[in-house]
Amino acid sequence: MDYILRKAALSDRTAITQLIIESARSLSRDDYSDQQIEGAIATVFGVDTNLIVDGTYFVADRNGELIGCGGWSKRKTLFGGDQYTTRDASQLDPQTEPAKIRAFFIHPQHARKGIARAILTACETEAKAAGFQALELMSTLPGIKLYEACGYSGDNHVELDVAEGVTIELLPMRKELK
Question: Could you give the CA distance from residue 144 to residue 146 in angstroms, rounded to a whole number?
């Protein structure tokens, strides 16, 4: 492993934003059009400051360069960065509600090298230690294979408006923690 996993800091926001943009523009090409990708970057894909402040957001750091990011949340918001207007930052009840897996993005040059899986494992471990019994997420189409390989399932795709007349297809997924 030529990177370290660490908790994101507020000072990482600019680098995380750039990572998200590069990841979305490159790794989503097979599943979404340019218009869909740019709409998602403008309205949904972005840094969620609450995840950083809560200490539940990880970055994969390779000699000072961020090559991956992702986290989990004890808040009700299922997806969306700070710019996403439909958010609920209230706390979840770990005994009755699932924690949220959030905002996974990998730099295109480092995709499919186990980074996302390592971040996901760290998230699952922390969520379980916090008392959560299940996890849920909203997967983009490119992320479905990873999440399925890690035990998540879902079968009812949804459409999300990302610009006037532009939607992206997403898949809500869930995993029970053992």
Answer: 6
User: What's the mean pLDDT in 119-147?
Assistant: 97
Please measure the distance between the N-terminal and C-terminal CA atoms of the chain and give it in whole angstroms: 27
Q: 69 vs 50, 92, 121, 131, 154, CA distance in Å? A: 14, 22, 13, 23, 23
| Helices 13-27, 34-43: inter-axial angle, 10-degree rounding | 160
Amino acid sitting at position 48: D
What pLDDT is recorded for position 127?
Answer: 98
Q: Please tell me the distance from the alpha carbon of residue 33 to that of residue 163, in angstroms, as a whole number.
A: 13
Contact at 8 Å (CB) between 107 and 67? yes
Q: pLDDT tens for residues 5-31?
A: 999 999 999 999 999 999 999 999 999
pLDDT single digits (tens) 44-62: 998 999 999 999 999 999 9
Indicate the residue type of 56.
Answer: T
